[in-house]
Amino acid sequence: MLKILIIGHAQHGKTTVAEILNQSYWYKGEDSSRASLRLFLFDILKERHGYLSHEEAYLDRVNHRSEWYDEICKYNEKDKARLGKGIMASNDIYIGMRSHDEIRACKRAKLFDIVLGVFDPRKPLEPKTSFTIDLWEESDVVLVNNGTKSKLERSINLLKFL
């Protein structure tokens, strides 16, 4: 199986693309937010925000995107590919990388065979405080998610290399 990175701004459809890849091609993926909570971030955030569960923290991430970005950058400080290596050790897909430095390090480490960008022109872009990747420069393919899930599925199925 190919090793895939899926990038894109918040709520543009990255998780939906990963779900389609899982259902259609049996790819297994992990979201960077969930992986971060599992590996290190929950212990930090539960103290700051009083979270009682990983799911509670995950659902509230939209209110603290810059904080999550900063904590992941700290986790990757000595090795910019650290989170990527952790996710890809047991997955085919990394969902939701946000840092320019991290994507460059992961590419140098050859963690991915392809980078899929997901872009929904109907949705706002994230500020640079929580997403520093140039989606169009770093993606091998950008899926434009401007319609139904069925339309997105058809776009994915056109990617013959999967």
Elements, N to C (H/E):
EHEHHHHEHEHEH
Share of residues in helices: 40-55%
CATH topology: Rossmann fold
pLDDT under 50 segments (min length 5)? Answer: none
User: What is the count of distinct domains?
Assistant: 1
CATH architecture: 3-Layer(aba) Sandwich
Strand content: 5-15%
Name the strands of the widest sheet in spatial order. 2-3-1-4-5
How far apart lie the N and C ends?
Answer: 8 Å
Return the structural class: alpha/beta
Any idea what the radius of gyration is? 15 Å
Average pLDDT for all residues: 95
Q: Can you tell me the overall shape?
A: globular
Can you tell me about this structure?
The chain has 162 residues and is of the alpha/beta class. The protein has a single domain (4-157), classed as Rossmann fold (3-Layer(aba) Sandwich), CATH 3.40.50. 47% of the residues lie in helices and 14% in strands. It has a five-stranded parallel sheet, with helices on both faces. Strand 4 (114-119), helix 7 (135-138) and strand 5 form a beta-alpha-beta unit. It is globular, with a radius of gyration of 15 Å. The protein starts with a strand and ends in a 5-residue tail after the last helix.
What's a concise summary of this model?
By secondary structure, this protein is an alpha/beta fold.
Name some characteristics of this structure.
Rossmann fold; globular; alpha/beta; single chain; 162 residues
